[in-house]
């Protein structure tokens, strides 16, 4: 099975599987990664190791509490490594784990897509506000029977 076939089967499982179940543990991981601060942390740490204060400055608008909480979630999920140095004042650094690097590629791709397509998204939003939005047609997925 190729990597692409594996990804397709996983996507299919997510559409039909437990991710939609109320108690699915995947939902918590998804929530941590795709929260506003989770995405920004994952993208920021792709640049390398950062101290807490550096992350806070880089991510304008995040409170200390939300940054600390988001970092704790991502650390508990195995995506972020927290390294505390035994010095005064405390020196704590954050970096991506190997698992974090892997998932950060996906998160960064989503962030890149948003940045690349922001003008289109904003235009649709403005058209909706003006009441002149063109009718939206649903997209129907077509299963590729050759992929199975």
Give the arrangement of secondary structure elements:
Elements lengths: L2 H14 L9 H9 L1 H10 L4 E2 H7 L5 H13 L3 E6 L5 E6 L1 H33 L18
Antiparallel strand pairs: 1-3, 2-3
Explained architecture:
The protein has 148 residues and is mainly alpha-helical. 58% of the residues lie in helices and 9% in strands. It contains six helices and three strands. The protein has a three-stranded antiparallel sheet with strand order 1-3-2. A hairpin with a 5-residue loop joins strand 2 and strand 3. Helix 2 packs across helix 3. The longest helix is centred in the last third of the chain and has 33 residues. It starts with a helix and ends in an 18-residue tail after the last helix. The mean pLDDT is 84.
Mean model confidence by pLDDT: 84
Number of DSSP helices? 6
Element order, helices and strands? HHHEHHEEH
**Class inferred from helices and paired strands:** mainly alpha
Low-confidence region ranges: none
User: Can you tell me the overall shape?
Assistant: globular
Q: How many β-strand stretches?
A: 3
What does the radius of gyration come to?
Answer: 19 Å
- Relative helix content: 55-70%
What kind of sheet is the major sheet? 3 strands, antiparallel
Strand content: 5-15%
Q: N-to-C terminal Cα separation, in Å?
A: 10 Å
Strand order of the largest sheet: 1-3-2
């Amino acid at each position: 099975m190729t990597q692409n076939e594996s990804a397709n089967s996983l996507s299919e499982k997510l559409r039909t599987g437990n991710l939609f179940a109320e108690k699915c543990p995947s939902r918590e991981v998804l929530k941590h990664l795709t929260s506003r601060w989770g995405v920004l942390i994952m993208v920021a740490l792709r640049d390398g190791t950062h101290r807490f204060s550096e992350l806070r400055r880089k991510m304008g608008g995040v409170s200390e509490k939300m940054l600390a909480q988001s970092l704790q979630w991502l650390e508990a999920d195995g995506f972020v490594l927290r390294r505390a140095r035994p010095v005064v004042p405390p020196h704590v650094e954050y970096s991506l784990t190997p698992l974090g690097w892997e998932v950060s590629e996906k998160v960064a791709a989503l962030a890149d897509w948003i940045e690349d397509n922001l003008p289109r998204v904003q235009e649709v939003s403005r058209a909706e506000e003006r009441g002149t939005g063109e009718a939206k047609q649903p997209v129907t997925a077509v299963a590729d029977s050759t992929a199975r």
